[in-house]
Design a protein that fits this description.
The chain is mostly helical and 610 residues long. The protein is built from 19 helices and 8 strands. 54% of the residues lie in helices and 3% in strands. The protein is globular. The protein starts with 6 loop residues before the first helix and ends in a 56-residue tail after the last helix.
Length: 610
């Protein structure tokens, strides 16, 4: 604790460093392009202003371009999604590291979550506000309403995710935020088995979104190859120098995620806008005239009605819905333990409800991506570029529900049928023929000494007797009772009275009182667990068997305790450990009646127990 810096100060520094490093990355790239440009239009100050503008644009802030031919400011609001990943990752890492969670239990406690979140956000916003002020003096200026909304939103959300991850992703903060949802939604989220349903819906949403995004990228790649000549011509038309072409290439790479979302919206049906009132979808393409040349815009389908190749893009949402249905069906099944049959966790109706919840979450997630991927590039005809968020979100929800619900129900039914036809897997112990119980009893009897206090006194076989109840739960009561009876027969044959059981009945014999002169006879034997392999050789087994027989002949049986009667059909409760008979009494040295000398006992003595 003495070596750790104050939590708030460290968090403030972490947030400021994250913002500074992000801006430095953009500044280094722009300064490299400015230095390598043969005919720069401005000095290093202009390059730094452009870097600041791009850093703000990466947060979703809308920019205003003032150097237009008409003199009217033009908005620039298309956020490159690849650039957005950089500030989000920086803030996330800063918040997670500022928590300073200990690696072991002996370390200092982590910094409080509120302290870290407040410090990182304030430090990030402090540097971000300074960058926005610096950017306001350039040709590309930040729109202050967007700065006050987007910059704090990105910083707060990323810092919260980092703190939540550092604390081990607890469930309580997420549930506390869900209390603002309407009543029906809260019942779905907080009802019985809520965690499993919400987790399944989130995983299925991630899988469906990944398929949509990957399918959109595939459609984009196919279209670029199909219009390869136009894309190459537009790339060479923009600039002649290698520095400018490298800048266009970097910008195109940063916009590839945006183009993938546009292509996914095209495959879903609503398509996207290339200018106000000019839509592009699989049924018709009507891009705005006089579009600026750009390689990604060259992949737009030609103007006119759609054909079969355009309609084939509809396979992407079908695959996404099927993937979501598969994940929901897998989540509807319980994970069986070894030896258990596969069982359904949810009914068919509940599975369909989880699929509808997945469709809703997937629609909200992709609507957010569609809104971030588009924006204005000017006024009039250039006022709107990209997909319309509510149309794209609604199409995603509809496709996921229509294609996912049948897949989820069919896959769930198939998994249930397969689990029933394959049976319950490996039978549970204690439900078989009782041979395991007999073998265990034989080993027990061989390891016991004449007094019943050998190394195996505390070993109770787990087959045929102790696990009969567990076997009955999985294989039926009759199988468990049969395993218990046959396992008990094995015990009687192998151990006899050395186990403290009455042969043929399975009743426990109570521990008799300690006889005079046998102090410590009832003390616990130090050997508590019978080894897996018999540590005694054949000679030891013969001696112990002989000692057990000698004890049975020369010692009277102890009174039987009928309170622990565990015969089949009676009370299923049995003592966990068998009780032991009395140790053999030593040879008597007292004189016989009427004689003055003690009478020597010539009876054969058992060997000394080791």
């Amino acid at each position: 604790m003495r070596d750790r810096e104050p939590g708030l100060a460290a968090s403030l520094l972490a947030g400021a460093v994250a913002a500074g490093l992000g801006f430095a990355s953009f500044a280094a790239l722009l300064m490299l392009l400015w230095v390598s440009s043969p005919y720069p239009d401005s000095g290093p100050g202009g390059a730094l202003h452009v870097a600041a503008a791009l850093w703000l644009l990466a947060h979703g802030v809308e920019l205003v371009r003032t150097d237009t031919l008409s003199g009217v400011p033009m908005p620039v609001g298309v956020t490159p999604l690849l650039l957005l990943a950089l500030p989000v990752w920086r803030v996330y890492r800063a918040a997670r590291d500022a928590v300073d969670a200990p690696e072991d239990a002996d370390g200092p406690p982590p910094v409080p979550a509120r302290t870290v979140w407040t410090g990182v956000v304030l430090g990030y916003l402090g540097v971000g506000g300074a960058i926005a002020l610096y950017c306001s003096g350039g040709e590309l200026r930040a729109s202050w309403p967007w700065v006050t909304v987007c910059l704090p939103l990105v910083a707060a959300g990323s810092a919260a995710a980092g703190v939540w991850s550092a604390y081990g992703c607890p469930r309580e903060p997420v549930l506390s935020m869900l209390t603002v949802l309407p009543g029906p939604v809260r019942r779905v989220v907080f009802g019985a088995d809520a965690r499993a349903r919400v987790g399944t819906a989130v995983r299925a949403t991630g899988a469906a979104t990944a398929v949509l995004f990957g399918g959109g990228a595939l459609v984009l790649g196919v279209s670029l190859v199909w219009h390869g000549g136009a894309a190459q011509a537009s790339f060479l038309q923009l600039t002649e120098g290698w520095t400018g072409r490298f800048a266009v290439l970097v910008l195109g790479i940063a916009l590839i995620p945006n183009a993938a979302v546009w292509a996914a919206s095209y495959a879903l049906g609503p398509g996207f806008l290339l200018g106000a009132g000019h839509g592009v979808n699989p049924f018709a393409s009507d891009p705005a005239p006089l579009l600026p040349p750009f390689p990604l815009l060259a992949a737009v389908p030609d103007a006119g009605a759609g054909s079969l190749p355009n309609w084939l893009a509809g396979l992407v949402p079908v695959a996404a819905g099927g993937m979501a249905g598969w994940f929901v069906a897998r989540g509807a099944m319980e994970r069986p333990e070894p030896g258990e049959a596969v069982a359904a966790r949810w009914s068919a109706a509940r599975t369909g409800g989880v699929m509808l919840l997945t469709a809703t979450v997937c629609a909200a997630a992709f609507a957010l991506l569609a809104e971030l991927a588009g924006g204005p590039l000017g006024v009039a005809a250039l006022a709107r570029f990209g997909p319309v968020w509510w149309q794209t979100g609604g199409a995603v929800g509809a496709w996921t529900a229509v294609c996912g619900v049948p897949v989820a129900l069919v896959v769930r039914g198939w998994l249930v049928w397969r689990g029933r036809t394959r049976g319950g897997g490996i039978p549970a112990q204690g439900t078989g023929t009782g041979q395991d119980g007999k073998a265990s009893a034989s080993n027990f009897g061989a390891a016991a000494d004449g007094t019943g206090n050998g190394p195996g006194k505390a070993e109770e076989p787990t087959t045929g007797e102790a696990t009969a109840t567990a076997g009955a739960e999985h294989q039926g009561a009759e199988g468990g009772r049969s395993g218990e009876e046959e396992g008990q027969e094995g015990h009687d044959e192998g151990a006899g009275r050395a186990r403290g059981k009455e042969p043929g009945t399975g009743k426990n014999l109570g521990r008799p009182e300690t006889a005079p002169g046998t102090a410590g006879a009832a003390e616990e034997d130090p050997y508590e667990i019978l080894p897996a392999d018999d540590p005694f050789g054949p000679d030891w087994s013969d001696d112990l068997t002989h000692a057990a027989r000698w004890t049975a002949v020369h010692e009277p049986a102890a009174p039987r305790d009928t309170s622990d009667d565990c015969r089949p059909g009676s009370s299923p409760t049995a003592p966990a450990w068998p009780l032991l008979p009395e140790r053999p009494r030593p040879a008597s040295t007292e004189p016989a009646p009427g004689s003055a000398e003690p009478v020597a006992d010539t009876t054969e003595q058992p060997p000394e127990s080791h």
